[in-house]
Design goal:
With 545 residues, the protein is α/β, with parallel strands linked by helices. It folds into two domains: 284 residues, 3-Layer(aba) Sandwich (Aldehyde Dehydrogenase, Chain A, domain 1), CATH 3.40.605.10; 189 residues, Aldehyde Dehydrogenase, Chain A, domain 2, CATH 3.40.309.10. The strands form seven sheets. The chain has a seven-stranded mixed beta sheet, with helices on both faces. A five-stranded parallel beta sheet has the order 9-8-7-10-11, sandwiched between helices. A three-stranded mixed beta sheet has the order 1-5-4. Helix 13 links the parallel strand 17 and strand 18. Helix 5 runs parallel beside helix 6. The structure holds nicotinamide-adenine-dinucleotide. Nicotinamide-adenine-dinucleotide binds next to helix 8 and helix 9.
Amino acid sequence: MTIGIASPPSPVNEPVRAYAPGSPERASLRRELDRQADMQVEVPLRIGGRSVTTGRLGTMRMPHDHRHALGTFHKAGPEEVAAAIEAAEAARPAWAALSWEDRAAVFLRAAELLAGRFRDRLNAATMLVQSKTAHQAEIDAACELVDFFRFNVHYYRSILEQQPACAPGMWNRLEYRPLDGFVFAVSPFNFTSIAGNLPTAPALCGNTVVWKPASTAVLSAHYIMDLLDEAGLPPGVINFVPGSGAEVGDPVLADPRLGGVHFTGSTEVFQGIWRTVGVNIGAYRQYPRLVGETGGKDFVFAHPSADPVAVGVALVRGAFEYQGQKCSAASRAYLPESLFPAVREYLADTIPQLGIGDVRDFKNFLGAVIDDRSYAKHTAAIAEAHEKVGGDVVEILGGEASDEVGYFVGPTVIVTKNPSYRTMCEELFGPILTVYVYPDDAFDQTLALCDRTSPYGLTGAIFARDRGAVAKATRALRHAAGNFYINDKPTGAVVGQQPFGGSRASGTNDKAGSALNLLRWLSPRTIKETFDPPRNFRYPYMEEV
Ligand code: NAD
């Protein structure tokens, strides 16, 4: 161990590459896309640094060309889950005993590798298996994950510096221990960066991890494991167990050594995990930390003083980028009557211009939704809305869909006169935006409506030129969003700039990519040392007068 109080490099956000025609990064990404599309990858589990195969296989497909398989992955069963827990427990003492600088260096090195020679690999896999455009892959798989690695080190160091006061004659210290058990990381399909952050944030803090990725994003997760291997992460620190949610989750949650759960995904699954932990609570060695970032029904709210074009652009980008499959995606909008015609015109003109198709065609704005189940859910919601035209539904813009080649659902706007219409309240997680038009003089009442319409509290935006309206909305919607935007779309949070997370049914709001999140993976020990301990039990007040 080196002796010194080290300062890691100051973090900066990874610059976003443009992939413009003729650029070297575009040519290099295209070569990698071709290479990966021509390959068949067989993804093993990784337990204690070993590759493990089970023969129980899932298939990895391109959502935008679902007949094209990219390979297979092995699924974990009870035996492998047990082995992964044992491997995490076996690796724990040595990993926790490493200096914080040694642990941090692994992730700083991972950041450099991802910014450099792993960039195309992670971006191409994210494009092919999760159907992201080049830009959406770049801001996620490359930039955001690099940012998580760099900024987490910075925040971790700043936590270690927080130390208590000392009265004369003593030294008080806080030792930031990792948890007294392994962490279960469970990641969603929609962000490669989140998949990378969920196991690595606890690991940076000295914890060891069992990581279950989403079955529709195993390929990019597999390359994250390659990246971490190359960065020098010791065997057993992160154990990779793809497989069915319940088959992996149930035995992990039943283990008495569970120290915490780092989850991102749907509200329903997180609530199931919470319930299971509750039922098992007497059996654990400690109270497991439960951190979950879950669903959203994110809103854009416009005041009559708003710029209609700015609102239109925010709706198009906020609702339709990555096919609306961002937890932060705008999926409901409240527009005043006076502004609605201009915004409607912008949406009606723009929707036909939004190319949809294979993400390897860089002209496309949207790819496919993730799988057949998702496609069925969205097309059913659009069909239902068509049936309601003339009743709850005023009109539908866009809304074309086809699953012949890929699971393509076109950008869709449902205009409703019922502010409690199903798609105003429920998360669909697709490119479907529902708009409610309110009377201009009902701004205050509509703010109250927005606040109570859905159980979620993740992201939201107010658009207004009138400062009084901005202030009023910011107050009225205080608990309606954990990430609140003024004159900006509700997506695109950047690590180090807009710490991300929401409350209510949207999660525990532990703000991924911030010190608040890292604190959940630490269990501080207070150490008080008295330099010259008392040698007489009597206090002065006890003396005779
Ligand atoms: P999901 O809930 O279907 O799956 C998430 C993960 O949980 C997957 O790895 C899945 O296999 C696993 N899982 C399922 N059942 C399980 C069980 N019984 N035990 C343990 N694990 C289990 O979510 P998804 O479809 O992958 O992602 C979309 C959802 O994620 C949306 O609701 C979206 O809003 C949410 N999300 C939220 C945030 C946020 O920061 N708030 C970010 C991204 C995604």
